[in-house]
Specification:
mainly alpha; globular; 221 residues
């Protein structure tokens, strides 16, 4: 239970942090929690699909090629597409979204639900050091993928941009992250830290834009 608590706490703290970003019109807590649970639920189908893909002949390769395939087409694409599908089907066309920041808070709930269950699985099997490392890497990374996803869903809803960008851009970002994370070298670890800092800066800029904007027109990217 100690390890489960260690694994769950980072995701819940980040969820509370994101929820309080919209102080003007807070999202219904029940809906945020519902999306958190839906995000948690897709860990298992994602795992099944990823295992099937990794076991297929076309994906069974090693070295740099295998790492890139795993990062972009297995983890990145499957996980982010499933998260985006939940948002698309439950939030995008609903009355829950009243402004750009709503898209980001709801996307964050989905992403953090996924990250929390995934974290429990890793931490309970690997221990304390994994809990510490993932609390400042993988769990925040899932949040930042979600912020990017919510931003592009908001761009689609309020500016008419292609909705597929909300699928593809987070998946590509996730793929870049995993490419560095799967490389067992000190240099790649340093690159990973630099990329995480870049994601933090990008996410902070996105949050500043959507919190100060009634419409998206003057914040085109």
């Amino acid at each position: 239970m100690f390890y489960v608590a260690l694994a769950v706490i980072p995701g819940l703290l980040l969820l509370v942090f994101m929820y309080t970003r919209d102080q003007l019109h807070p999202e219904p807590k029940r809906q945020v929690f519902r999306l958190f649970i839906l995000g948690a639920a897709i860990v298992f189908p994602a795992g099944v699909i990823e295992r099937l893909m990794m076991g297929s002949r076309g994906f069974a390769s090693g070295g740099i090629e295998g790492r890139l395939i795993t990062a972009f087409f297995v983890a990145g694409m499957i996980e982010e597409f499933l998260k985006a599908s939940i948002f698309d089907r439950t939030v995008y066309q609903s009355r829950l979204v009243r402004g750009p920041v709503d898209c980001i808070v709801y996307a964050a709930a989905v992403g953090l639900g996924f990250a929390t269950v995934e974290n429990v699985m890793y931490v309970t099997s690997s221990g304390l050091m994994t809990a510490i490392v993932r609390s400042v890497t993988a769990v925040p990374a899932h949040l930042m993928f979600a912020i990017i996803m919510g931003y592009w869903f908001a761009k689609a809803k309020f500016e008419g941009k292609s909705k597929w960008l909300a699928y593809v851009i987070p998946a590509a970002t996730h793929g870049v992250y995993d490419t560095f994370a799967l490389s067992s070298t000190v240099f790649m670890d340093l690159v990973l830290v630099a990329f995480l800092l870049f994601l933090v800066e990008t996410s902070a800029r996105i949050m500043a834009r959507v919190r100060s904007a009634r419409t998206f027109n003057r914040y085109a990217v």
